[in-house]
Amino acid sequence: MTVFRQNLDxxxxxxxxxxxxxxTAFIYFIRSAPRPDFLGxxxxxxxxxxxxxxxxxxxxxxxxxxxxxxxYLGPSPFFLFPIGxxxxxxxxxxxxxxxxKLRDLHLFVGLGNVLLDLLDILYMGxxxxxxxxxxTITISLGTFVAVKAWRKDGRLDGKLIVVGFIIVGLxxxxxxSAGLGI
Length: 182
Description:
By secondary structure, this protein is an all-alpha fold.
């Protein structure tokens, strides 16, 4: 019970993100065609962030007792949440080739990390610092695209999405720099 109390903030935040993702996915799948793509991307983003928050804490040991399963499920959402982020941004601010490439890059790298680990070639713990550098570069590029869209788009909702991405991007860069010890 002490572990639960000590990590209550991340458990609540993670559960909130996860259930928002599940609820959004539910809405996405019950809607008749045409389905708005941004709901699917947002469901991925929110669901992966929620899983990462909950499973990366010691509380994850209580939820998933299997060490092997927790080993793959813990970091995998961290590798995969940018797929939802860049897909959502691409859908909300208008199609952008760079955002699609960043989304595809994270899909390739995320699934590649799991595959390389399963084949005992490279372990996820060894890749995390390289991946943090990749996240820094892709968040910076995504911020560039968002600012470019802000200047081009005069709609208020587009500007709000851009401001949100910039805030999330700056928070992400702060977390990455803290993770790297900078």
